[in-house]
Amino acid sequence: MSDNEFERAACAAARAAGKVLRRRFRESLDVQKKGLHDFVTDVDRQAEAVVVDYLTGRFPDHAVMAEEGSPAERATTGPRWVIDPLDGTTNFIHGVTPFSVSVALEDDRGLAVAAIHDPILDETFHAARGAGARLNGEPIRCSEPAGADLALIATGFPFRELTRLEQYLEAFEAFMRRTAGLRRAGSAAIDLAYTACGRYDGFWEIGLSRWDVAAGILIVREAGGTVTDVLGGDGMLDTGDIVAAGRRFHPLMLSVTRDAFSHSG
Predict the structure, then answer these.
(1) Do the bridges between strand 202-205 and strand 152-155 make them parallel or antiparallel, or are there none, so unpaired?
(2) Which domains does the chain have, with CATH numbers?
(3) Rounded distance, CA 199 to CA 17, Å?
(4) Cis bond leading into 98, ω under 30°?
(5) How far apart are CA 33 and CA 79, in angstroms?
(6) Looking at the whole model, is its pTM more than 0.70?
(7) Buried/exposed 199-235: b ≥16 CB within 10 Å, e otherwise
(8) What average pLDDT does range 171-195 have in this prediction?
């Protein structure tokens, strides 16, 4: 089966879960605390079940890594789906947007396909390796601002990385002084999708999980962007530290994060 067929499956799975999120948005929720500033609802689990059931039904030999630990997860070799059924749970709990469904497929060559779906705006950002990135089927590209003072960038507050808060705030201040503005929307997947289509000129955050960034990394790369960790390495999927932007703007962002995170703070 081709990457294009896997891409269509990722989009279909994400949209199916999105229907659950849209239907349950601003309804009464069963909210549980997983950790510091980290929550899960019955809707997260319901949406995850929809994605997992769809993908395992179509691809029974594929492995699954899903945020809420679906019972369908299997420790197998070969292709693996990486799923966040509700990225932006805190937003969802409080009845605010954005939030999204994020689905990616990894194989022995890395990230193969990706889909990020915003169920409220009915926008699906998607990509297949080597085939470009799209929004609802139309090609998208990262922006390249003429200067940092014209750039709008996004970030996320590192609520699970408080031991590195001093370094984060150092970078935050540097970006605040150099750019046209910072935004914190509450969904890393949406931040990466917006970077891929040029709504944001760049995005950076630390301490994310694999399912938060896997789909967005591929979509940004296929939209002509560069994605690294905060020191310029390639460990984003493992560390959750990420800097994403157009190829010409990325070095400027990286210079800020390197300065902040290359010392102990």
Answers:
(1) parallel
(2) 3-139 (3.30.540.10), 148-261 (3.40.190.80)
(3) 24
(4) yes
(5) 31
(6) yes
(7) ebbbbbbbbbbbbbbbbbbbbbbbbbbbbbbbeeeee
(8) 97
